[in-house]
Structures are given as structure tokens and as C-alpha cells.
Amino acid sequence: RKGSTGYNPNEVQPPRKQLHVDPEDYSQEGNRDLENDEDFYDPSNPSEQGGSMDMNLDDQTNETNPFTFTPPFTQHTTGEGVTTRSASPSLFSDIHDSDTEDPPTDNKEPITTPAKQETRAQKPLPPPRNSTINGHTVPASQLTPPPHKGFPQAYGVTAKGLTDAITTTTKKVWNTIKGPKAYVTVAYASPTKNYSLEHVNDIKNTIRKFTKDNQNMVLSPSELTSRTNNTTPQPFLLSGLPKVETEALCDFRIFSTPTLTLAIFPVRIDPDDFLMTLTGFLLEPTKQNESFIKTVVTKALEHSPTIIDWFNRNQAHLHPKLALYPPIHIPKTIAASTQVHALTVNENGGAQIVWGIYIFPPTLDNKLAAEFKTLAKEIQYASIHGYGNAKRTDFQCGLCRGRDHPTAVCPMKTVHGFFNKDPNPSHPNNTIEPNPTVDPKTEDDDDTLFDIPENRNQSRGHHTLRTAQAPRGRGGPNRGRKAGRGLPK
């Protein structure tokens, strides 16, 4: 047998050539001021090395799981007429040293699988009957078990987004807490100033069911700034548990029980694939139209002067996987990773089609990732089928806390056996198992928090009420013809 003709992981490979698609060819498939915002995480701070914990790590427009992209296969034909197949090198897939070729055979006809075996492989697995967490085996009647592929991803969840509305006093108190920590949010819980002791005890008792060494467990409440809405996160800070048990809770993430549903997050969350939500395209939510918008967005990002300048200024802070690519090709490589997913939501009194945009994160630095998102949102994505503009304020799910969808269409509701406690009767509970991806582990939490002033600019952030109006009297900023019109979308 001749040697492998597959990919050699020890050789630096150039990025694959991208297929140029003209967005006019419809049949092809395919703000926030950051410089003066002192809420951003400083990468030079020792929290990078685990010295401290940062509640306000990144922009609120940003669950932690990178998108999985499946590379195509490359076929090779030897001089003997034997066709082999090897995986092409990809930025978005793990590269293994093992030989991925199909072994050559004397019979040149393709190897087929019996129809009976194909049918058996395509049969869906039955839903899990129980969950295992910190040594506890819990039946599905008391805790919704994760599907075989994991819970649906909650894209855009950030540490800053979870804590952006809490007061400076809360941050100072949380600074004094040492040891492993995690954020805990309650599904469908509206912000409140007066906690119910019974409600807090329910949260504690729920967590105790899935931990063992919990004698020193503490659940610290938070106080929010004055302007919030019904989906503004009001997290608790969980502490006092061993590190291994805290990490297990964060990895499990969603605890849906007959009484309440909790979402638990680590105090450090890396940027994920979610970039923004676009509106303005007059297209139906089909795969073909998703491909069309992908072409429009890819071209705009690749040729945007501000995006190119961002890459040039931040070469030293790009994602480690980009080190194998020549700098001149990196903007095109990142732009080509664009994925588009259509979503139908109820806005402005009727159904509206929006388009979620996802890319491979160009950096793991939360401040730089937030800057990149802001630049991408400032671009208008013009096409023959409309002019795409990014939503200024991302959605805020009151269940999983994701930022790429509203509460009504949260994918968690499609998980088999999910205990839906949505107080809104118009939000259905569908028990159809989805196809999510599995969350990777995040970095360990730290011992301290930063004293970062709360955000008092009420014109920014997801906790700003759209219905709030400024005074209309003489000298008021909204007097005259513009009074009462509200904020633009």
C-alpha cells in the first residue's frame, strides 16, 4: 500500500479558496462607544491568569459554544486508479494525526452498507430517562435530562450581559466573596427589589439536590439599577461549593424541575459565534434565502475598511487557530465562516422575519470581540432584496438568557420533557428534540471581582425601556415636534 495522501498536520496550509458568489445571482447557494466605556474588561488585568473574576467582561450584544463547521472531503486518485478520501484542513474542525483515508481495495466498486443497517442507524435514540450530576442520578420526572447532543445553545450570553444592570453596591459585596463562584438566574423571573425568602429557599433546595458538599453553600442576591424590563437578568452569585461541583453545575447549565428552572453560568464566558441579528430583507425564511444573505454578509465583512483595520490593529490578539493563516487572508477567512439562520418573531404587532448572523469568533478577548461586533453592526448590508441593518439591541430570552432569540421561541422549550413554567400562555411548550451542539468547558472562575461603576447611560443596554420618554416641557430634549416618538429601532 502506498503512503497516505491526506492532510499533513505538521505543514502550514493556506486557507481554502473561497467561492465568489455574486449576491445579485439569486440562484447561487452558498452603538455603543467602546473607547470611553470603562465597563470593559482590561486584557492586561491579572484575571487573564486567573487572578480575579470580572463580571463585566464584554459587550451585552455578545452560552459559549462555538459553531461547528463540517469541512468537505478531498478525493485523490493514485496512479493505480485507486480513489481515496481524506478530510480537508479546516479552521473549524479538530485536526487529528491519524490517517483518515479509506483503505484501497481490489474491488473498485464503492462499498455499500446493507439497507437494514442504514435503517437501523437512522432510527432516533429514545430520550434519556435520567441525569447524572455530582454523583446524583436523577429521574426525568424530577430533572429534565440533556438530549443526546446536549441542550440547545444559548448564543450571546456574556458575563457583562448578565451583570450589566446590577448596582455598584452589589459588585462591591460580591468582590469580598472568595473561592469558586457561578451566576444563577431563574427562568421567567422578573426583576424585583424585595426577594421572597420562600423563593430563595426554593432555589437553594434545588441546587442542594444536585450537589453533595453543600454545607457552606451561599446564594448572594443582587440589586438592580432603576431602569429594567421584564427580561433583564437579576442573577444570584453562587459560592461555597467545591470547585469540581461548581464546574459540574456550569457544565450541566439548565436545571428544569417541576417547581422552577435555573440557568447556571461560569463567571468567565468566552466569546461565542453569535454576531448580530439583521432585519430589512424582503425574503421568506428558506435555506436558499439564508444562502443569499450569507453571500451578502460575507462580501460586506470581507471588504469593509473598518473590519480590515480592526484585524490589522489586533494581529497579536486574534484567535489561536488563526495563527496558521497568512494575515492577509484572515479577514476573508473569518468572513467566509458566516452562517445565517432565519427566525420568525412577533414584533410591532405582527410576524417578522429576522436573520441571525454567526461567525467563528475572531478573538477570545472579550473587549475586542465587543468592538468587532459593534463595527459589524454599523455596516449596512445592501442587496437587491432589501437593506439589512443590525438590531441595535439584541433579543433577551427570559428563559435561557440567550441574545439571538426572544423568550417566546426559546429552543429550550423544544427539549423533550422540559418543565415549562412560562407565565405567558401565548408561549407554547413544544416537546420536540432539537439538534443542538455540546457546550465546551469554560475557564475557571476567580477569587475577586472588579469594582466597575454601574452603567448609568440609560440610552444603552438591554435594560432600557423603549417606552420611557423624556420630559416634554420647555427646555426638555424632546420638546416640540419630536416629543413622544420614542427611541428609533
From TrEMBL:
Q: Where is this region: Disordered?
A: 1-154, 419-489
Q: Where is the composition biased (Low complexity)?
A: 62-78
Q: Where is the composition biased (Polar residues)?
A: 1-11, 80-91, 130-143
Q: Where is the composition biased (Basic residues)?
A: 479-489
- Its recorded name reads Uncharacterized protein
- Origin species: Candolleomyces aberdarensis
